[in-house]
Design brief:
Glutaredoxin, four-stranded mixed β-sheet, Thioredoxin-like_sf, about 200 residues, Glutathione S-transferase Yfyf (Class Pi), Chain A, domain 2, 7 helices, binds glutathione, alpha+beta, Glutathione_S-Trfase_N, transferase, GST_C, 2 domains
């Protein structure tokens, strides 16, 4: 199985999933920011992540992760129990829409757009929107992870997006900060992070 990657990108979520599932894989680092790239992602728009597994090729982070969960079913990580699965799916949907949208737009302004072309108005708008959605987040005090006491696929998407928010300088409550630290201290995250940075 080959995963096309780039440091500090969403390909980390796929590698993290693979590490959680204990599946071996190869990575191919794409020349994402190079004007004359020697390695190009086969993704229809040249993006990462992209996965090739035999005759199956998949683009879109969530679609790749769900394929992996279904190919390598592991009871608690992506439960087959309808009630538990619906909770994981709700958090995945929330992470990729309400939560990620303002944070990703803020990150693009702060990291990818040169300072002279940056819009202060947009930065302030996306910062406020990010803060609003993060402040609305309610963590169940009795639970270690977002859906309960099992670390699931939803925790990968939630904690990675919250980490982006933290990197953008958004103030995070101690509970959310602890949650990010718990997730990113896992051996699976550290391994995935190492491989995604190569
Ligand atoms: N919706 C896609 C987004 C993928 C995406 O935008 N990836 C970024 C890196 S995190 C990328 O490849 N950017 C390069 C580009 O847009 O050319 C997914 O979730 O996989």
């Amino acid at each position: 199985m080959k995963i096309y990657t780039f440091p500090k990108s969403r390909s980390l979520r796929v590698l993290w999933t693979l590490e959680e599932l204990g599946v071996s894989y190869d990575t191919i680092k794409v020349d994402l920011l190079n004007d004359s790239p020697s390695v190009i992602s086969p993704h229809s728009r040249g993006k990462v992540p992209f996965m090739v597994d035999g005759d199956i090729s998949i683009e879109e982070t969530l679609s790749i992760c769900l394929y992996l969960c279904e190919k390598y079913p592991e009871k608690s990580f992506y439960s087959s129990d309808l009630k538990e699965k619906s909770s994981i799916n709700s958090w995945l949907s929330f992470a990729l829409t309400d939560l990620e949208s303002p944070i990703w737009n803020l990150l693009k302004q702060l990291v990818f757009i040169p300072e002279e072309k940056r819009s202060l108005e947009l930065v302030n708008y996306f910062r406020k929107e990010s803060e609003k959605v993060i402040n609305q987040l309610k963590f169940d005090k009795g639970h270690e992870w977002i859906t309960g006491n099992n670390f699931t696929l939803a925790d990968i998407f939630m904690s990675h997006t919250l980490l982006w928010a933290k990197l953008c300088g958004i103030s995070i409550s101690p509970a959310i900060n602890d949650y990010i630290n718990r997730a990113t201290n896992r051996a699976s995250y550290l391994k995935a992070q190492e491989k995604n940075s190569q």
